[in-house]
Amino acid sequence: xxxxxxxxxxxxxxxxxxxxxxxxxxxxxxxxxxxGDAFLACSNGRIHSPIHRVIATxxxxxxxxxxxxxxxxxxxxxxxxxxxxxxSLLLKPFHNMDLxxxxxxxxxxxxxxxxxxxxxxx
Length: 122
Prior knowledge:
Layout lengths: L1 E3 L7 E4 L5 E3 L8 E3 L3 H5 L9 E3 L20 E2 L17 E2 H8 L4 H11 L4
Antiparallel strand pairs: 1-4, 2-3, 2-5, 6-7
């Protein structure tokens, strides 16, 4: 999960389903919450992590970023309550720590491949 307070500085963009990038308008009084990849499994495909980026802007204020990753070391899997005739099991269970190891690699393609495999039907 990502929690963002933009300090009224522009630059955050989110990719739409159509592949377009849209800018997120900053607001000094709000926090933006974005789901992480594990939410895809926890919600059986109902919650997706957004593809996002931060572009350099000529802002009058400085922009700071801090990344903090928290992992439980557990297997990520869809709760049985979210699997039924309307929503068949979407993702195979995967070990949460495997995501952490992939984040530490320089090869981002390995992370993309892992998520793609995890998104295969069980």
